[in-house]
Amino acid sequence: MWNVGWVWVMVSEMSIDTHGFVKALTAAGVPAAQAEAHVEALRDKVLPELATHRDLKTLSFELRSEMASIRTDMWKMSFAVVLATATLVTFLQKLLA
Asked: What is the pLDDT along the chain (97 residues), one digit of tens a residue?
């Protein structure tokens, strides 16, 4: 899922060794139930919102393409303003002559 307003990217290929993480927490003195709750929260809430390196490269490419398109549109509008201004000046010169 992409939302370019702010970057929220769903991860499709990230995994975590939940058993190893629970073991490490319990070895550090965290009660087993609390360690499992931490791992579950991490798996369900944090990991789905992380982006992989490939996700960020893809997003970067998409943003660069969009910026290039915007830049082209700005040049077109600038040219239209210059053309309209030249036309108006020419019209006013003929009107006032």
From this structure: 444 444 444 444 556 778 888 888 899 999 999 988 988 888 777 776 777 788 888 889 999 999 999 999 999 999 999 999 999 999 999 999 8
Question: What is the C-alpha to C-alpha distance for residues 60 and 43, in angstroms, rounded to an integer?
Answer: 26
Nearest to 19 by CA among 1, 5, 32: 32
User: Do the beta carbons of residue 43 and residue 16 sit within 8 Å?
Assistant: yes
Q: Give helix 18-27 / helix 32-41 axis angle, nearest 10°.
A: 140
18 touches 43 (CB < 8 A): yes
pTM: 0.47
Domain map (residue ranges) of the chain:
12-50, 53-97
